[in-house]
Amino acid sequence: MTPPILNLLAAQPTTNQPLVVVLLVLLCAAALVAVACRKFNVEAIPGYLLAGALVGPHAVGLITSESAAQPVTDLATVLLLFTIGLQFDAGNFRRGALSIVTLSVASTVLYIALFWVVLLGVGLTAPVALALSMAGCSASTAVTLRLLQARRELHEAHGRVSMGFSILDDLSGVVMLAAFPLIAAWAGASGAGVGGSGMGDKVLAAAKAVGGVAVMLAVAGLLLPRVMQRVAKLRSQEALLLCAAAIALLSAAWMNWIGFSPEMGAFLAGVMLGGTPLRYQLVGQLGPMRDLLMAVFFLSVGLVVDPALVASNLPLVLGLAVALMAIKLLVTAACCWAAGMTGRGSVLTGVYNINAGEFTFVLLAAATGLSIVSPQQAALAVAIAALTLVATPLLVGPAHALGGRLTRLPLAPWVHSSALQDPAPHAPGPESSPRTGSDEGGTPDEGEAQPGAEPPRHVIIAGFGPGGRAVADRLASMSVPYVIVDLNASTVQRQTSAGRRVVYGDISNPDVLDAAGIADAAAVIVTIPDDDAALRAVAAVRQAAPEVFIGVRTQFLSGKMRALSLGADEVVVAEVAVASAMDRELFTALSKRLDLSRVPTTPTQR
To answer: How is domain 459-597 classified at the architecture level of CATH?
Structure first.
């Protein structure tokens, strides 16, 4: 069986509409939506869904059939979920990780149970209601991340928990994809692929699937870090990007062959690559492609929506959308408060996770393909999910206002301490202040912290050649923390082994800058011996942090003016430094050899 993700290479669309026309319509619609949403400062994802419904076969008909876009949709879905998997970073919610995992599992189970009851109440059968409630439990990683970044709340307690929830929802979505064939068998669906097969065949199929996943994880765990490390040593960003994309498609094809969805394989490949030091560089490189894939993905999802069908069932769609958001908000907020979060943090976490997510649409597509739900039910479910995506950004502002009023709400009475709260600012006391001199009561040493002073903010050093090492040594002597950013994989490995904090990547990559902590940095020192790369870095740093101090080296005097115009605060010119060193060091040695001290100096001789 040909994997769906390879249809683009192996077959033509099943309609007479040329693929290039489908792509043209999708990209033009995406461009118009992106411009309009940027102009009016609204979230683009609901706009993509609406635009897909309008250009699709049930409305204007610029795309004549849902299957016409299937090859593009399959490829976009696989690569999009690969980029989402790359964003899985255990470090983002390492503080309170056990609590976050427990909360996520508890809230997911409660949500599925409650929304299942609601769907049973509107007349759906038990398998259909279960599949739809499972699909709805996912939250959008993209929307949550954008909202938290826009408000600079990613590292606050509710930001860490919200991102932890959305990532764990994606992981639970992988488990649900694997469970959908069982639900299809329960529903007696013709697409379940289990009818007529004997118990032996079922056991063999299950053994093949489990063994295939185990083989993939084992091989990836042993080989993937080594292979990507060797690719990184080539210092070719093109090779790194192409290898990552090839790994995503290979994992997707493998998972499809053993009986799981290709989307599941691509997501797991992203998670595994996300655990390597290359994560930040890959996320930054794939950023523009991720935005393009997201637009194509949500536009393609919108193609299944029939506006007339939604309009005729509008009260049901609105009611279920409100019920979905209310259940997710109440369940999430209650679980967070019970686990020790403040009232404000609980409400904000609940609001950031009330929407449906990318895995919602993947699960809906899988449920439709397995004939668990009908195309009409899937179209209504997509409309409900779209409404939650529209509502989330609108509710964030009121949620902050409500959260401010809940600051006086006491913690749960059974909670004495919790890792799900922001740590209180630490005021150093006499017992915690470092000694600031060699003798008690002596003069403080230069560069050491003063009692009661705030700890110094860190400095980012871009490039760890001789210049970067000199800067690092000077900062270390002054007790100033620093983070190294370098594209040399060997350097990264050595300095990490030495206990230094190092980020692999290009300093002009926004995700690499974010990983290095640009938001809290006191300065960025660019020591890259390449003027073009250094100037790109200055521009990227200044855009990311308008107030940060930027020091940079350039090879020539001409580069100094360009660096200053791009926002550098201080520029060291290599050719000037060399001239100064020659004047100081070379002529000192030469004077000893020629005994120039006896030669009278004149302006002409000088």
So the answer is: 3-Layer(aba) Sandwich (3.40)
